[in-house]
């Protein structure tokens, strides 16, 4: 599951060659991951525990935005959200629904973030 953004790797490399700080690239991806986490939290079943809802979070990598759910104390996050094929537990529609929303939103957020980075670094 996930959203693929064409040209992501090339854009990241071009910014790095232009001398853009990696932390700035992480900020752009972090914005996508944060919004993805907010969207996913909205789709978590109402019967799910509050701990599961609160464990949803995004990362800040330079080349991808990942949303994760669950921690050591939230034991059933994997089966509830991602499914568990070995035990015939089907995944919830949470990821599919989140991907459907983020498919259009992620490129918009990246474009905004990259434009800000380019302006700050005198590339526009």
TrEMBL record:
This is HK97 gp10 family phage protein. It comes from Nocardioides oleivorans.
């Amino acid at each position: 599951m996930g959203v693929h953004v064409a040209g992501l790797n090339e854009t990241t490399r071009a910014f790095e060659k232009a001398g853009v700080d990696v932390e700035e690239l992480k900020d752009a991806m972090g914005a996508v991951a944060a919004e993805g986490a907010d969207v996913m939290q909205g789709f978590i079943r109402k019967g799910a525990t509050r701990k599961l809802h609160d464990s949803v979070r995004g990362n800040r990598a330079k080349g991808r935005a990942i949303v994760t759910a669950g921690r050591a104390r939230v034991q059933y996050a994997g089966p509830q959200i991602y499914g568990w094929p070995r035990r015939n537990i089907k995944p919830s529609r949470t990821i599919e629904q989140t991907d459907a929303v983020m498919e259009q939103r992620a490129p918009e957020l990246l474009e905004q973030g990259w434009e800000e980075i380019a302006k700050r670094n005198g590339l526009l």
